[in-house]
Amino acid sequence: MKFRIRFADQIVGLFILLAILGLAGMLILIGANQRWFATNYHFYSRFNSAVSLSVGQSIKLKGFEIGKVNKISLTPQNQVDIEFYIFDTYYEKIRPNSVLELAVNPLGIGGGLSFHPGNNNRPPLEELSFIPSLDLEQGKELIKNDLVDMPKGQDEIVAIMNKVGPIMDEVYAALSSTNTLITSINDAITGHGEGPVAEMLAQLTVATTRVSESMYNVKGILANIEDITSEPTGLVTRLLDPKGSIATLLDDDNVVFNQILIALEEVNAIIAQLSDFTKYVNSTQPQISGLLEKTKVALDEGKDVLEAVKNNPLLRGGITEKREQQTTFQSYRDEDF
Fold this sequence. Notes:
Order of helices and strands: HEEEEEEHHHHHH
Oligomer: single chain
Radius of gyration: 42 Å
Number of strands: 6
Strand order of the largest sheet: 1-4-3-2-6-5
Distance between the termini: 134 Å
């Protein structure tokens, strides 16, 4: 006797349908988890180097993954352009004045590509907009002007290292400006420079030489007068002699007088030039004072940053203390006065 199940075909069909629906549901769940059906918004940025950048790299905002890098290319100017996309759930965070930061931890811990939104409530940027990185001056200016919502609780070492670069740039710029100023002053003093100060000093040197020559002539005249007054015998005769020194001095067609007049005019010109030079130095004194003050502030900030690095518990003991080598030369301070 054969065993026969009623509606067997319908039951088999039902199981097949349930299996298909289950498979479709699993695919939908996987696709939703992998964002197959989500909308992504594409943007691009620029860096100085592709080191630590890679396709598929995550872009994070305060620890949350909000997008990924999908293309890296080298520009004709040898800069690195990246194209990335932001998930639709975080699109509202892409506000104006936003920046990208490639964080590289000096200890090899953490790092990655971080996104910092603009410090405003304006509508999000349009798709395919340019978002500057902190490698560019545009991004640094946004940070400097407090237009970016930077995290306050970031790693202490990373925060210190991020401050070292701008401070050292300011120190280098201040030292370069000071060196340029000192070089210009030195060239002007030695007569090898250009500009009004160098020309004034060159003219001062020429005028000083002419005054020296004129004074030499006057010295000769005074020597002749001394000869006349030092010889008591025949003094009146020599004074009244038509060929004597006084007659020669008075009958020289004003040669000596003209030389004295030229020397006095050159002295007046030198005084006027010295007055102009004093005015020039006084006018540039605020710039020099500001430059020196900026150098002092930058050095103080660099000292504070280096002290913070030294006091960090992760870096203590990492640098071997160097023993000071005693010099064999005696200092001037060791002398008795």
